[in-house]
Sequence to fold (364 residues):
Amino acid sequence: PYDCLVLATGAMAWVPNIKGAFKDGGKELKQGVFVLRTIEDARGIQSLASKGKRAVVVGAGLVGLEVAEALMVRGCKVTIIEYLSNCILAMVDDDMAQMMADAIRGHDVKMFNEYEVTEILGDDRANCVVAVDRKTKEERTFYADLIVIATGQRGETRLAKQVGCDVGNTKQIVVDDRCETCVKDVFSVGDCTEYPDLITGTPTVSGLGTIAVKMAMVAGINAAGGDERLPKGFLQTRATEPFGCQVAAVGPTSAQLEQHGIKPIIGKVRGFTLPDYFPGRKEIYVKVLAHPDDGKILGAQIVGEDRVHMRVNAYAVALQAGMTVHDFAQLETAYCPPAAPTMDVITIACEAVRLKLARGAAKN
Fold:
């Protein structure tokens, strides 16, 4: 018996239907094949990762790229195989992802995009990966001493279903702004749940630690008799830094917005972290996505070498507050030659959108 129940069952690594990935067609991965979800998974990978070993990483999302970098640092010869046309496309647009792809290849890591892994060969232990080029249908074999499958996750919802909780279209547990399920006094948090995206309103699976912590705080307070609420939607503010390339984003990508019938006005600029005349400045690219009707900021993506995540946090505030590019362009940012330029690139990107909007209005 319980007064309140909080389901924080998390998620499991998802392995696509790859022939030969499991022992004898069962549920246990073949020797030499790994996912990365637990400490035990990490230890298993670590036990095989050494100088000169050939490692294949299946999937070029956030986890896949960070695993690839860690294997590279340990001296492995790393190959990444990605189903989509570029890496981290769930995070940023293709043009921004290409900068990460260039950084990957600049570290002597091979990456093959638009390849589908169809089979893992090896009797007792996996020794190679078979993949098919999705364009040419040409089959290619990649020899490997270890294989890491990083193709996403699926929420652990079995207990929730037994309790009677609703599971949504994302196959995750549906919760309200109190983190409560459809079953009274049963709450759920983290990777096993879905919650609306603030910009599109669509139920979304996060998988981000920041959001899991926010949900845990809300559910804990409410389970103890309080009345705490989540925001009406999440922004999915995210960042990563493999291969010396910092990438951060907030809000939907262009493709995700277009799926919801919005063709954003885009401002993309190249700038620097410090004034032109000051030594040590780093290049930075900023891309802002705004609504074509009113210039409301819908998303932002940043790629660079220094303090990228701090800049995307400013955009997160803007999205949370419903600011437009007109509002944000007037933001008063700090100036100090060793630390920041007179006009930060984040405001200049919004100026670029304002110009496009003004030209569009003039044509009409």
